[in-house]
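Known limitations

Files may contain more than one protein. Parsers should not assume a single record per file. Below, a two-record file is shown to illustrate correct handling: read the sequence, read the token line, then continue until end of file.
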Amino acid sequence: EQQQPRLKGARKLIDDDKVTILTRHEDGGVDVEVMGTDVAHFIRLREDGDKCTCPWYGKHQGLRGPCKHVLAARMKVDGA
């Protein structure tokens, strides 16, 4: 985990209670809010791919793996 800064950041977001599940959809999708430093990020967890409103996700579009907000959202939803 020490070599995975996004995973470390995701765990901190969970530990700091900054992750809130907003909506669970009948199709299994989940909408989550993650509070960042100065702004709330909104995450859509879907079977066909997750999306986040943060600049890192906007730049990489998931091609470099999930951002820390998506990781934190998945951890919260999965109870990890």
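...continuing to the second record:
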Amino acid sequence: MEYPVFYSFRRCPYAMRARSALLVSETPGRLREVVLRDKPDAMIAASAKGTVPVLVQNDDMVIDESLDIMLWALERNDPEHWLKDADQALSLIAEADGDFKAHLDRYKYPN
């Protein structure tokens, strides 16, 4: 059996949340840790965006947005009921994504 390939970067918060959902949903896969200054050709071929996370499935279907990876994994198996109240969960994620990214960037790259 071929497992999906998951391209990730350990400190990327978006990749972290996708990894969390894959782990909780017990989705098997092959983790490919990416060095951002030397991105794998296979990852770029799968997703020209060149950002992580990227999930490449056996049928060559590509999911390259963390929220989409989370939903795909949890819709397959959600043993901890993360999607029990999906509207509330998605609202919380949207709220965090709004200001979170700007604050994160200012923290990581102060100028």
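Parsers that stop after the first record will miss the second one. For reference, the second record is described as follows. The first strand starts at residue 5 and ends at 8.
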